[in-house]
């Protein structure tokens, strides 16, 4: 028989510490949907997704009921659309965006990712068409997410793409300004994007992936925070060990759900993503974990070290608990989606520069950050370039999901609601990066030895 | 299928008898029971076997919740696997 206290501790984690499965994401290859006619291509895409994922939501809900563990999101990721649509003669890919959105609605999922292009080394014609379609695609859909990979450790940084994405982000913010720039909350610019990420907005189904796959993202900042409350004042060895044990338990649950979903859907299990994903709910914050380690407010000196420990301990604990670990796997620090980060940013303790430093030691990057509406496209591009450089040099994934708050200024905030939360507008440097961004070209791939 | 039933509520006489009757009515076998009372608060954990139960897992869960309400208790059921996964290597 199981230990009485163990059972009650699991129930306590679910009831009071926000333990949940953050997402069960089905990856679907759309490579066989290519067609020279964009409407036929869109129809094939719709049919394939709604066939493959027909039972995704009901299966996940049955698992929720039987195991008594909430599965917050059911999602779909697809092959980067710039590849699928490459055969289409059309210039505008919005019809495909709409077909993806319609498929997501039919399946009952809350996001579909993969309106994406991988341009770390250069653009194909299709990549350009896709990127140009992003603002309209995000403005005319509800559940579609888009991502563009502009850099990698192997290829360097495509600065032409970095420049273009600054403009695309601004355009998306303008076109969705009545919705608080919601389009930008569904658009990520990556360096070293991974092919099996189950989390949005950056999920896509990479070309090295099977026909169809189930990836699971676990969560549990609240559980880690709660566990650390029992080791107040203890040395960091104890803190790290406590986080590892907690991450192990959380991940085992993720592994179980992933295996069960895979079995019932008849789809191979891909990976468990070990990320600690916060929500705007009180008690489900990564920032509060860092503060529990002894920082007065997240963002003060010591924050990067605290986050480094947290991120590493989560991986060490989680990796033994799952047969296959992948995706982004680390702690997320999305400002608008984390109650503690929102407070820290509002109080002026957390700045963009500190967030940038934090992204050196965790996944994934400058995430869900609102900046003043008059921030020039070149400044957005320069922020992307800095993040991409961190990812490229450190051989890790980094990303930028930034929202220029059109017509708003510092002191205001954007309200997205739900898991996307609320974003206080944060200051950016006022000095120009225009001449830097206007150069274009590529920043060469870095040396991988002589590391210092 | 083996499952864990957790019962919580204010302590009184006959809780175990009441819950066991509800389970027996649905052809459910109780394999193990662990129970404690802390400051008037009753907590019971039962390991059960649902093999002969005609209800689906979701139906059984709803039935137990409803019966629990009538008895002034919170009764929930979860498959045993989740606890094994989290607490056993």
Any overview of this molecule?
- The complex is a heterodimer of chains A (452) and B (89).
- In chain A, helix 7 crosses helix 15 (377-394) and helix 10 crosses helix 12 (303-319).
- Chain A has helices at 4-16, 38-52, 56-67, 81-84, 94-107, 125-139, 159-175, 182-185, 221-228, 236-265, 286-292, 303-319, 339-346, 352-358, 377-394, 434-438; strands spanning 21-28, 71-78, 111-118, 144-152, 156-158, 187-191, 212-218, 269-273, 325-326, 365-372, 398-405, 413-415, 422-424, 442-443.
- Chain A is 43% helix and 17% strand.
- In chain A, a hairpin with a 3-residue loop joins strand 4 and strand 5 (156-158).
- Chain A has a domain at 25-57 and 66-191: Anaerobic Ribonucleotide-triphosphate Reductase Large Chain (Alpha-Beta Barrel), CATH 3.20.70.20.
- Chain A has 452 residues and is α/β, with parallel strands linked by helices.
- Chain B has 89 residues and is an alpha+beta fold.
- Chain B has a single domain, classed as Alpha-Beta Plaits.
- Chain B is built from three helices and four strands, in the order E-H-E-E-H-E-H.
- Chain B has helices at residues 15-25, 57-71, 81-87; strands spanning 2-10, 29-38, 41-49, 73-79.
- In chain B, strands 2-3-1-4 form a four-stranded antiparallel β-sheet.
- In chain B, a hairpin with a 2-residue loop joins strand 2 and strand 3 (41-49).
- In chain B, helix 1 packs antiparallel against helix 2.
- The radius of gyration of chain B is 13 Å and the shape is globular.
- The interface between A and B is medium-sized, with 20 and 24 residues.
- Please outline the major beta sheet of chain B: 4 strands, antiparallel
Distance between the termini of chain B: 21 Å
State the CATH architecture of the domain at 25-57 and 66-191 in chain A.
Alpha-Beta Barrel
Number of DSSP E strands of chain B = 4
Mind telling me the CATH class of chain B?
A: Alpha Beta
Radius of gyration of chain A: 21 Å
CATH superfamily of chain B: ACT domain
Shape of chain B: globular
Strand order, largest beta sheet of chain B: 2-3-1-4
């Amino acid at each position: 028989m199981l230990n009485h206290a163990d059972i009650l501790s699991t129930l306590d984690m679910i009831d009071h510490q926000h333990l949940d499965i953050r997402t069960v994401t089905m990856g679907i290859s759309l490579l066989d949907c290519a067609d020279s006619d964009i409407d036929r291509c869109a129809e094939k895409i719709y049919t394939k997704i709604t066939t493959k994922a027909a039972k995704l939501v009901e299966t996940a809900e049955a698992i929720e009921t039987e195991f008594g563990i909430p599965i917050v999101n059911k999602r779909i990721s697809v092959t980067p659309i710039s590849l699928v649509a490459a055969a289409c003669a059309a210039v505008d890919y919005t019809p495909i965006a709409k077909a993806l959105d319609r498929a997501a609605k039919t399946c009952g999922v809350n996001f579909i990712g993969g309106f994406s292009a991988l341009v770390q080394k250069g653009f194909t014609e299709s990549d350009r068409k896709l990127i140009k379609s992003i603002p309209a695609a995000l403005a005319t859909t509800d559940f579609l997410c888009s991502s563009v990979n502009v850099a990698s450790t192997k290829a360097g940084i495509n600065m032409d793409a970095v420049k273009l994405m600054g403009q695309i982000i601004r355009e998306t913010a303008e076109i969705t300004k009545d919705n608080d720039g919601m389009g930008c909350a569904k658009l990520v610019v990556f360096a070293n994007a991974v092919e099996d990420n189950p989390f949005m907005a950056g999920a896509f189904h990479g070309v090295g992936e099977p026909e169809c796959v189930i990836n699971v993202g676990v969560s549990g900042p609240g559980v880690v925070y709660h566990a650390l409350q029992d080791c107040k004042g203890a040395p960091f060895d104890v803190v790290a060990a406590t986080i590892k044990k907690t991450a192990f338990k959380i991940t085992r649950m993720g592994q179980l759900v992933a295996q069960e979903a895979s079995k019932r859907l008849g789809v191979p299990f891909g990976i468990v993503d070990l990320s600690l994903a916060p929500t705007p709910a009180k008690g489900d914050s990564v920032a509060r974990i860092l503060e529990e380690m002894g920082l007065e407010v997240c963002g003060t000196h010591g924050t990067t070290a605290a986050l480094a420990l947290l991120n590493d301990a989560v991986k060490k604990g989680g990796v033994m608990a799952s047969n296959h670990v992948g995706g982004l796997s680390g702690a997320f620090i999305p400002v608008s989606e984390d109650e503690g980060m929102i407070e820290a940013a509002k109080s002026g303790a957390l700045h963009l520069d500190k967030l940038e430093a934090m992204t050196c030691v965790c996944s994934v990057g400058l995430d869900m950050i609102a900046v003043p509406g008059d921030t020039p496209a070149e400044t957005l591009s320069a922020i992307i370039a800095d993040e991409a450089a961190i990812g490229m040099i450190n051989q890790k994934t980094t990303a930028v999901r930034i929202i220029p708050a059109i017509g708003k200024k510092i002191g205001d905030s954007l309200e997205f609601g739900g898991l996307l939360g609320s974003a206080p507008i944060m200051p950016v440097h006022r000095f120009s990066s225009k001449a830097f961004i206007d150069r274009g070209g590529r920043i060469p791939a870095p040396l991988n030895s002589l590391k210092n | 299928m083996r499952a864990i039933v957790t019962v919580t509520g204010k302590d009184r006489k006959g809780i175990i008898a009441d819950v066991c009757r509800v389970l027996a009515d649905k052809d459910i076998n109780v394999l193990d029971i662990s129970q404690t009372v802390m400051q008037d608060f009753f907590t019971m954990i039962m390991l059960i076997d649902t093999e002969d139960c005609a209800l689906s897992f979701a139906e059984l869960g709803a039935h137990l919740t409803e019966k629990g309400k009538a008895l002034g208790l919170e009764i929930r059921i979860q498959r045993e696997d989740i606890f094994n996964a989290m607490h056993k290597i």
